[in-house]
Every structure is written in structure tokens, then in C-alpha cells.
């Protein structure tokens, strides 16, 4: 039985398993707070426990794992703990088995944990995760993902996995690369997003795809960035911008109502702001439109649309969001003629929540000629286009349906639902702010044998620099 169920078992014997949070010795009585995933309850050892059990209880320390059988008793009115959901009862211990002892934890697990240094929290993450705050966050994340899966399944989506060992893509960040043993000197890249694969799935006729997708970007980490993070990624065939936006708006609303009913959405339908207006009025393309920034339960969503497709840097054109996007239909002519390039607007739509970009997507160029024009504007030579994107152009030329999609940064969204200051608080095993896994001690050096097998030699100077 779990602790959350005991309130319906008053007067009965129950058997519980969990961790000792704290022990209080009051002479004739020994109290412990017993904790499992579902909650915590006070257990009392006293005359009814017998000598042997009482002596055993004296030994208990924080984080020992025990199995306890006892009687659920209503506490006297004046002894109730209003702060605990099980504070109206306690367990009179009759039997106990110590399942495991524990070394003294390196930090206090009864607090929220914000006061503990990140390094030590991450090194002992399995302990850190025992805090009720983190248990709640991970449970919330589970519920969010479960809701999304069920909702999209209802809407006829297939969940399809795409490769992790893939090829370098132009998503705008640096790739993580994996050396190939069989093809010495060649490398896989980890996906920055499943962008190309999901479009290929549309070419393959699946029509509605989604994935809870792991993405990898070798960027300098910040509060809301991690080397690896999770997207809710989706793509649909035969849709216009409006369809994707409506579907996502409805999903977000239903999801908030279900997973975080205490939250209030400021405005429905979500307001739409053009990039130009956002920049003029808020000075950012992810405006925080909350009416009341003190309100913890206020969610102010807005869409930002009408982004410029290209921007100029050092006399060269680069894409602002996604090279696979289509221009707005009325600007297709400009793209095809490669004229007024700076004025071409893309079908990109970003979804912003309380000043955080939590997602973005677009309608894609489904005609190969149009995608090719984008690469030409970016200044890619024919050879490079064919080498890097030949498969995309060929797939589009094979009868690809019109399609579009979006991806959400799942952790940013869950972070905001959980009122957390950064995404590490909603990831079970995040990297530290400087991209390390202190628990596993990663990244780490390889043995010479492994390097030899890969045909890789690490430059000595590089090692010395470290
Ligand atoms: N692949 C894009 C990204 O990761 C999202 C999309 O356009 O669907 O930002």
C-alpha cells in the first residue's frame, strides 16, 4: 500500500514500505516520518511495539529503507498536523524489517534544495531527486507527456522514433559528433532536432507524426538550455499555418487544465503579435505579456508571427529560424525570383509563454525548386546543396505533400508549469551549468585502445590547455 492511501484505512492494519525521513526520540515514544513516493506519515513506536521492535527503532537513521506493519490511528484533535495531508493520523508500529541502511546523506533532503550548491546536488542526484519538490516535478513532467501522447493519439497522430546517430544539419547550433569505427575518419552527428526526418516521414505518407524527441546542441549552456533536451516534435501533412497553430493552442489549453488546474491562462484565444510589433513594443521577439508578473499561477501565452525569413550578416544572407520553412504565400514570388530578400516573411510561428519561447514551427517548402532557392540565397554552391540536402530535394520531388509542424521545448514548458527557475529542475539527470555530468564523471577521456580503434589521436596541446 502507498502512504497516500492510508486515510481510508483508519482502524486497520497496514503494511508500508519507504524511507525514514527523520527520527525523533521522546524517551518512551520514538517517532519517525516514513516517506514513500506518494507522501509521508508519522509512525510511532511505543509500548504496543514490544521491547525488541522498540530497540530496533532506536537505531533508525535518516534515509534507511524499512518495511513497517502497524495500525492506522486517528490522532487526538490537538495533536493533528495541519501541514501534512496525512496529519490527522499516525501509524502504531507493530512490525518492522530494515531493508537497507543508509550512510548519512550529504545534504538535507527535507528542504527544497535551492540552498545546496549545484555541484553537490548533481553529484548525488539520486539523493537530490528524493526531495518532494523534485518528486513532484518529475511526476508533473510524466503527466504532461502522458497527456500529450493520449491527446495526439486521439487526433490520429503516430508516434515515430527517428535516429539519434545521424548527419550534421544546419539548425544553427554546433553539432555533437560521434566517430564511426567502421568508417574511420567519418562521423555521425546527433540530431539538433528531427526536422529532416519528420519531413521525410511526411514524404513517406504518414500525415500526422509526433515524437517526444531528444535533441542535442553543443551550445554554451544557460539556465534554460542543456546540451541535450527534449522536444515535443510534430509534423502534419495538408495543413496551413492556421491549422498547426489551432491544434497546438487547443492542446496547450487542455493540457494546462488537466496537468496544472491551479493555473490561469490570461487570454484565450492566445494573442498574436507580429515580429515587428513585438520588437517595437517589447524590444524582444519573446515578449512577456503578463498583466501581473507577481501572480505565480498566471500563464500568458502569445504567438509571434511574420518573422523575416532572412537576415544579413557580413554581407551574407542567413536564415532567421529554419531553412526548411516556406515563405508566406504572398512572398513566394520574391523567393522564387530571389528579389527583395530582406522583405520576405516566413510562415514561422513561435509560441511564447511568460517571456519564454516554448516552441516554434512553420509551414515548409514542399516543392524542391523553392527549397533550392533558399539554399541559393544562403550562398550554397550547387555541389554543397546536393551533398548536404540532395536527399531532401529528391524526397520533395518524389511527391511530397504540403506539410508543416512545430516543436516545443518540453522542459521549458514544464519548468514554467512547476514555477521553477531553470530547466535542470525538471530533468531527472541534467548536466551542470558547464555541461558536465558530475555523477557519472562525463565527459571523460577514452582509453588509448578505444581511440586507436576509432583511428583518433588527441592532440597533446589540447589536453595541456585543459
Ligand atoms: N525543428 C524546429 C526546431 O527545432 C522546429 C520546427 O520547425 O518544427 O526549432
Describe the structure.
The chain has 466 residues and is an alpha+beta fold. It has 13 helices and 19 strands. It has an eight-stranded mixed β-sheet with strand order 6-9-10-19-18-17-14-12, with helices on both faces. A five-stranded mixed beta barrel has the order 1-2-3-5-4. It has a two-stranded antiparallel sheet with strand order 7-8. α4 (132-154) crosses α6 and α9 (368-377) packs antiparallel against α10. The model has no long low-confidence stretch (mean pLDDT 95). Bound molecules: aspartic acid (ASP). Aspartic acid is lined by residues 193, 195, 322, 360-362, 405-407.
- What is the CA-CA span between the terminal residues? 52 Å
**Beta strand %:** 25-35%
Q: Helix share of residues?
A: 25-40%
> How would you state the average pLDDT, rounded?
95
In this structure, how is the largest beta sheet organized? 8 strands, mixed
Radius of gyration: 28 Å
The largest sheet has its strands arranged as 6-9-10-19-18-17-14-12
Shape: elongated
Ligand inventory reads: aspartic acid
* E-strand count: 19
Amino acid at each position: 500500500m502507498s502512504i497516500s492511501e492510508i486515510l481510508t484505512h483508519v482502524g486497520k492494519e497496514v503494511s508500508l514500505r519507504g524511507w525514514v525521513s527523520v527520527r525523533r526520540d521522546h524517551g518512551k515514544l520514538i517517532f519517525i516520518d516514513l516517506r514513500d513516493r506518494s507522501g509521508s506519515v508519522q509512525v510511532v513506536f511505543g509500548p504496543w511495539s514490544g521491547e525488541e521492535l522498540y530497540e530496533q527503532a532506536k537505531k533508525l537513521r535518516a534515509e534507511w529503507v524499512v518495511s513497517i506493519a502497524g495500525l492506522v490511528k486517528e490522532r487526538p484533535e490537538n495533536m493533528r498536523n495541519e501541514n501534512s495531508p496525512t496529519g490527522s493520523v499516525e501509524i502504531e508500529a507493530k512490525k518492522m524489517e530494515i531493508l537497507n541502511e543508509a550512510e548519512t546523506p550529504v545534504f538535507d533532503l527535507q528542504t527544497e534544495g535551492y540552498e545546496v550548491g549545484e555541484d553537490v546536488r548533481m553529484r548525488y542526484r539520486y539523493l537530490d531527486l528524493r526531495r518532494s519538490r523534485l518528486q513532484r516535478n518529475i511526476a508533473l513532467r510524466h503527466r504532461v507527456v502522458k497527456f500529450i501522447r493520449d491527446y495526439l493519439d486521439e487526433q490520429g497522430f503516430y508516434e515515430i522514433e527517428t535516429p539519434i546517430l545521424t548527419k550534421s544539419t544546419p539548425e544553427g547550433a554546433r553539432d555533437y559528433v560521434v566517430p564511426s569505427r567502421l568508417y574511420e575518419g567519418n562521423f555521425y552527428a546527433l540530431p539538433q532536432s528531427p526536422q529532416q526526418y519528420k519531413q521525410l516521414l511526411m514524404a513517406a505518407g504518414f500525415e500526422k507524426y509526433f515524437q517526444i524527441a531528444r535533441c542535442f546542441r553543443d551550445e554554451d549552456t544557460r539556465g534554460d538550455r542543456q546540451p541535450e533536451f527534449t522536444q515535443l516534435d510534430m509534423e502534419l501533412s495538408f495543413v496551413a499555418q492556421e491549422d498547426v497553430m489551432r491544434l497546438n493552442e487547443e492542446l496547450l489549453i487542455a493540457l494546462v487544465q488537466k496537468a496544472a488546474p491551479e493555473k490561469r491562462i490570461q487570454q484565450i484565444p492566445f494573442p498574436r503579435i507580429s515580429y515587428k510589433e513585438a520588437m517595437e513594443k517589447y524590444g524582444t521577439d519573446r515578449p512577456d505579456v503578463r498583466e501581473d508578473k507577481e501572480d505565480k499561477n498566471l500563464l500568458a501565452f502569445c504567438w509571434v508571427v511574420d518573422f523575416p525569413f532572412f537576415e544579413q550578416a557580413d554581407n551574407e544572407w542567413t536564415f532567421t529560424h529554419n531553412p526548411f520553412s516556406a515563405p508566406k504565400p504572398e512572398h513566394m514570388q520574391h523567393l522564387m525570383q530571389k528579389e527583395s530578400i530582406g522583405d520576405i516573411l516566413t510562415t514561422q510561428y513561435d509560441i511564447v509563454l511568460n517571456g519564454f519561447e516554448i516552441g516554434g514551427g512553420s509551414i515548409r517548402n514542399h516543392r524542391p525548386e523553392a527549397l533550392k532557392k533558399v539554399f541559393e540565397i544562403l550562398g550554397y554552391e550547387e555541389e554543397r546543396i546536393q551533398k548536404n540536402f540532395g536527399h531532401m530535394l529528391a524526397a520533395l520531388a518524389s511527391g511530397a505533400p504540403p506539410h508543416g509542424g512545430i516543436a516545443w521545448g518540453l522542459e521549458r514548458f514544464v519548468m514554467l508549469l512547476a514555477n521553477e527557475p531553470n530547466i535542470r529542475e525538471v530533468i531527472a539527470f541534467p548536466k551542470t551549468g558547464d555541461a558536465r555530468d558530475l555523477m557519472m564523471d562525463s565527459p571523460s577521456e577514452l582509453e588509448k585502445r578505444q581511440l586507436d580503434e576509432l583511428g583518433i589521436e588527441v592532440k597533446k596541446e589540447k589536453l595541456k590547455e585543459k
